[in-house]
Amino acid sequence: MLYREAGDFKTSYVADSQTFPIAFDRYRYWVVLAVAFLVVPFFITDYTANALLLPFLIYSIAAIGLNILTGYAGQVSLGTGGFMAVGAYACYKLMTAFPDVNILIHVILAGGITAAVGTAFGLPSLRIKGFYLAVATLAAQFFLVWLFNKVSWFYNYSASGQINAPERTVLGVAVTGPNTPAWASYLVCLVFVTACALIARNLTRGALGRQWMAIRDMDIAAEIIGVNPLKAKLTAFAVSSFFVGISGALFFAVYLGAVEVGEAFGINKSFLVLFMIIIGGLGSIFGAFAGAAFLVCLPVVLKLIGVDLLGWPTDLVAHFQLVIVGLLIMFFLVKEPHGLAQLWRLAKEKLRLWPFPH
Amino acid sequence: MKMKTLSTLALTGALTAGMAAADLVIPDLSYRTGPYAAGGTPFSDGYQDYFNLLNARDGGIGGEEVRILECETGYNTEKGVECYEATKGEGALIYQPLSTGITYQLIPKATVDEIPIHTMGYGRTSAANGEVFNWVFNYPANYWDAASVMINYLTEQNGGSLEGKTIALLYHNSAYGKEPIRTLETLSADMGFELTQIAVDHPGQEQKSQWLQIRRERPDYVLMWGWGVMNQVAVQEAANINYPMDQFIGNWWAGAEHDVTPAGAAADGYLSLNMNRIGDLPVFGEIETMVHEAGNAAGDGSNIGSVLYTRGMYAAMLAAEAIAKAQEIHGVSDVTAAMVRDGMEALEITSARMDELGMANIGPEFSVSCENHGGSGLGIVQQWNASSGTWTPLTDYIEPDNAVIDPLISEDSMAFAAENNIEPGCL
Question: Are A118 and A84 in contact (CB under 8 A)?
Fold first, then answer.
């Protein structure tokens, strides 16, 4: 009834090709943004920020990045954790080397450095694909973690090998370090998430995104119709790593404040982000958000229910968490192999006909 | 997805709003799952059982009931942060995360929130300088003390000199394992032994290549900074290459029963440090009757008296004593986190007090001051006897070499102060 194309007349090509062609979708989009920017910051607490919102936003950026590479361009990557580490360490080196430069610029530069590293590790993708490429990116994962552990220049020769984010401000408000108010760190991440999602959405709708998808669907056919695989694959690696680098920088600087590379950016992180996009939906920006929300919020919700409501022992709940998350992953993959994004899509299709399905 | 986030928010809000009480809140950031659970479980059992004993026997501390908030971290820093944020609003008095990684996360946060952290024999060593780290305490001993105690023990074993000896450090490749490197490097330059550093990556199940290197180089001694599953694997691998166990010394986190039992008889003679003494303390009987038999045992109640259980109980005792001290200083029984900090800084543990608590000689006598949050730094060396399945203390408390450690602590803490614009001073 509400959700339909009918009556929404487009009078220009721009209007016709906009991201959300259905009026209701557009309003919903603006309402979500308005709530996120104008309402949530007033109600946020340290707990909601640090346990739910910051990890959700930061993992969303990483999932968008990986989704571009794996979901849109079809190049499987297991190096996400390593590339996040590049973003984090680049951000740390920049923060400590140029303390007067704004932290937001450092985060973007960290993304740029990660893009360069990602492109270098993307070179093998021109010769190998599928499982073999996954193994090559796995090598990147282990190599990068080893590098940041081994070369003490990266952690400024500190005794413990940890990197700690010093306090940096934006417009006079601390956004890194312990004095950061919850709303400030939330807003910084939110701005980055919004910008990344917009860029990603528009890139994937444009010529570049179509080239990626052509390569994903059938690389030989794509080459025959004139898509340059070198350009398409390397841009996918670069753009993907850029987003992953930004998420790594935010993960270190804004969210945790201190990281240890092996623990924070190990192989588990690569798998976690990969699971996010598989559960959320490959080749969908919404899927990246849905997957991140699922894997970040679900354990916390299960913990709240198990420990705080039911009063079960913490270890039992921790074990149950693994079982339940695992079962839900299997359930979703069996019931809907295209992820949460597909469920969303189906729901929207149904909504169009509601309440008079034929 | 937005709906999901919002409903989670609502749920969290409802849960946190529902709890407010005027008792002494002690969070226990434990880990009973994951590769480090073998060490985390007995420590947490001992920690909780002691507070439960105080509740059952004395009605809490100074008449105030103790409420324990357990939160599972899995030794993971992200979960550790979540646990910290979830518990701090409840009026948490003191944090003991039992993880160097989580400690590094919490130091800046807890300093801003003004909640003391007690990292007993782990965490950031330079926190011993209380003028820089006002809210962090690591008494009775720290990693650099441990490194120095080991070297002092070996020096004594070798007739006063380690000149020309080769010593390998097998360490967990993390902030925890890297802590002693700086001290050992300084000591190696001073005393003329040769130091080899061998890293083991998290979680430490894979150590073939490291032990191949040890087999090839045959160092005179192997020192180990290990935790969790890494310890068991290392002891087993040492047995596999026939490395003499009495030349293999673990630090105090690599010297519990569960570290050596998997290797069976082959682990006989393995050495490790300990910061507390173990033995049949009268307090265990009280815990047995008043906590376990009352059905309030933390965990399955099987760990009583083990090395890490004893240490967890010791940690709880030190926290309880600090709270009692805070109640005495401020004259109120319902103390705040800031008052507990004052109590920790004025803490004095005497032999008479330990006798009174039914824990005679569990630790060394020490006192804390604003300048020194690190305690005395003493440690003993103990040896595993596989046939009887017990640890035997070989030495009395050994002193660390403070002439070496103090300059390092001051250097590292001053670097931290400069980085974070801290003006060193007492509160």
Answer: no
> Is the residue at B13 inside a domain?
no
Q: Is the same domain home to B50 and B164? A: no
Q: Which candidate from A149, A164, A301 shows the least CB-CB separation from B8?
A: A301
Residue labelled with tokens 């490749």: B173
Q: d(Cα A183, Cα A50) in Å, to the nearest integer?
A: 11
In a domain, A27, yes or no: no
* Chain A (299-328) residues lying within 8 Å, Cβ to Cβ, of chain B: 300-301, 303-304, 307-309, 313-315, 317-319
d(CA A227, nearest CA chain B) in Å = 35
**CATH number assigned to the domain comprising residue B155:** 3.40.50.2300
Cβ of B5 within 8 Å of Cβ of A149? The answer is: no
Q: Do B131 and B175 belong to one domain?
A: no
Residues B249 and B390 in one domain: yes
Q: How far is A42 from chain B (nearest CA, A)?
A: 13
What's the pLDDT tens digit per position in B335-392? 999 999 999 999 999 999 999 999 988 999 999 998 899 888 899 999 999 999 899 9
- Indicate if B234 and B324 belong to the same structural domain: no
How many residues in total does chain B contain? 427
Question: Which of A48, A179, A307 has its CB closest to that of B12?
Answer: A48
Tens-place pLDDT, residues B184-242: 999 999 999 999 999 998 888 889 999 999 999 999 999 999 998 999 999 999 999 99
Are both B290 and B415 inside the same structural domain? yes
The residue behind tokens 């440090």 is: B273
Chain A touched by B16 (CB under 8 Å):
yes
